Amino acid sequence: MSINPDQIIKFSPMHRLQWEEVQQKDVILYPEGMVELNQSSAEILKMCDGTRNLTQIVSDLEQQFATTGLVNDITAFLEVALKNGWIQQK
Amino acid sequence: MAGSNKNNITPPRWLLAELTYACPLQCPYCSNPIDYAKYQSELDTEDWKRVLTQARKMGAVQLGFSGGEPLTRKDLPELVKHARGLGYYSNLITSGYGLTEEKIIELKEAGLDHIQVSIQASSQELNDHIAGTESFQHKKEVAHLVKKHGYPMVLCVVIHRENIHQMPQILEMAEELGADYLELANTQYYGWAHANRDLLLPTKEQFEQAEQIAQAFKEKVAGKMKIYYVVPDFHEDRPKACMNGWGTTFLTIAPDGVALPCHSARELPGLDCPNVKDYSIDQIWNESKAFNFFRGYEWMKEPCSSCDEKEKDFGGCRCQAYLLTGDMYAADPVCSKSPNHSVIQEAIDSARASALSDHEKPLIFRNSKNSKKLS
Ligand code: SF4
Ligand code: SF4
């Protein structure tokens, strides 16, 4: 599954992204399961709020962290996220 | 006792709230204890709210409202709302009996995250026979309504000898109903299922065939439906890593407030499982005898104690060891290294003989009358 760079990405309504105080981690919750996220994955997913496409997510994150060259990492992670149903493109 | 080193204790992540033993259905594989009828008292709303608050504070995040049939509790929406406010991801584990569209909407508004509906078989006749109650059409309707109101829909089918031949139709039904998740739970032989084992345990050939069909289907629906296949451990040669390790992840609270490290731990002798009316969840989880009983590895006997696989399966299931060998410290007899491993083959042979006999004894249905008679 690949990401269309022009299409808006949004987090799946069938999952929940949430900060867990005890674990000091963001997690994804879904029926019978939970995935613990590292910080960069969590930051990428928080950008998937239904207002941005891939290109915008990359440029917003690069700006936020004052860096460049994130496109490959972000794309690869979002492809995994799409395959797992954590995000949607519609 | 092992695990008394507090630093090694991980916090609970999953909380199973068994709100009641009351249930209009009579499934002969029900995981409730055989003698459930003698536990009449139920925690009240305030007790449950306190339990939810305390467990959440410790780190519990996945929450199952179960039973019996949790819908028989009038305060369910109130508890769901409380749970949502605390940040739980909550699941209603229901037979669907008594679930109306109004209730589905009410629970959604209260903050319920998903609903798991159990269906006993893919045909009305068999479903209603196994459930001991006419319920098939309504369950299908409920499944549609769950979808309609935007919940992820989890369908659960418990698999045993009476329905295993319907595997293709069960999968078809799940697809037709639009299930997002399908749990194919091969019966685990505790509680009522233990009492009915001769009638429920399929043959190895039946298992293998059903598994093959399910596996092929899994590939076909990949990306659309997620399938959880609970393995039938009687036909394996290593036990399952029960509860992900005793007192590491799971916390069950029974209807009367007894806290259990696993939902059948009530059957084990001498654990003195604590009650949430007397202790906080923190005390129960960290300090109680019951939760420390099988923590770590020190309690183990041979062959487990010197086994290089003990960190993988923790010696298997304590309840299964107790039910089948009479010794709760023994290796789970599913393990081929267990000196009692032959009891598994005996169980399989006995079930096969029962299947072939002309005078198969009838299933014992889970109801109060049978519960009183058997306990
Ligand atoms: S397994 Fe069947 S009888 Fe037992 S609580 Fe669930 S629906 Fe009721
Ligand atoms: S001997 Fe015990 S620890 Fe080793 S594999 Fe068997 S059950 Fe597991």
Write out key terms for the chains shown.
heterodimer; A: 90 residues; alpha+beta; three-stranded antiparallel sheet; 31% strand; B: 375 residues; alpha/beta; nine-stranded mixed sheet; 37% helix; globular; disordered N terminus; binds iron/sulfur cluster
Task: Produce the secondary structure layout.
The complex is a heterodimer of chains A (90) and B (375).
Chain A: E1 8-11, E2 16-20, E3 25-30, E4 33-37, H1 39-46, E5 49-53, H2 54-64, H3 71-83, E6 87-89
Antiparallel strand pairs in A: 1-5, 1-6, 2-3, 3-4
Chain B: E1 14-18, H1 45-58, E2 62-66, H2 76-86, E3 89-94, H3 101-110, E4 114-118, H4 124-131, H5 136-148, E5 153-159, H6 167-176, E6 181-186, H7 191-195, H8 197-200, H9 204-220, E7 226-230, E8 250-253, E9 259-260, H10 281-287, H11 289-292, H12 310-313, H13 318-325, H14 342-356, H15 368-374
Helix pairs in contact in B: 1-2, 2-3
The structure holds iron/sulfur cluster (2 copies).
The site of one iron/sulfur cluster has 14 residues of chain B, from helix 12.
The dominant shape of chain A is globular
Helix content of chain B: 25-40%
Widest β-sheet, arrangement of strands of chain B: 7-6-5-4-3-2-1-8-9
Rg of chain B, alpha carbons: 20 Å
Averaged pLDDT of chain A: 93
Question: What's the helix-strand series of chain A?
Answer: EEEEHEHHE
The secondary structure category of chain A is alpha+beta
Descriptive report:
The complex is a heterodimer of chains A (90) and B (375). Chain A is 36% helix and 31% strand. Chain A is α+β, with helices and mostly antiparallel strands and 90 residues long. Chain A has a three-stranded antiparallel sheet. A three-stranded antiparallel sheet of chain A has the order 2-3-4. The model of chain A has no long low-confidence stretch (mean pLDDT 93). Chain A has helices at residues 39-46, 54-64, 71-83, and strands at 8-11, 16-20, 25-30, 33-37, 49-53, 87-89. By secondary structure, chain B is of the alpha/beta class. Chain B has helices at 45-58, 76-86, 101-110, 124-131, 136-148, 167-176, 191-195, 197-200, 204-220, 281-287, 289-292, 310-313, 318-325, 342-356, 368-374, and strands at 14-18, 62-66, 89-94, 114-118, 153-159, 181-186, 226-230, 250-253, 259-260. A nine-stranded mixed sheet of chain B has the order 7-6-5-4-3-2-1-8-9, covered by helices on one side. In chain B, helix 1 links the parallel strand 1 and strand 2 (62-66). In chain B, helix 1 (45-58) packs parallel to helix 2 (76-86) and helix 2 runs parallel beside helix 3 (101-110). Mean pLDDT of chain B is 90; it is low at 1-5. Chain A binds chain B through residues 1, 13-14, 16, 18, 20, 22-23, 27, 29-32, 34, 83, 85, and chain B through 11, 13, 57-59, 61-62, 87, 89, 91, 113-114, 116, 150, 152, 154, 180-181, 183, 223, 226, 228.
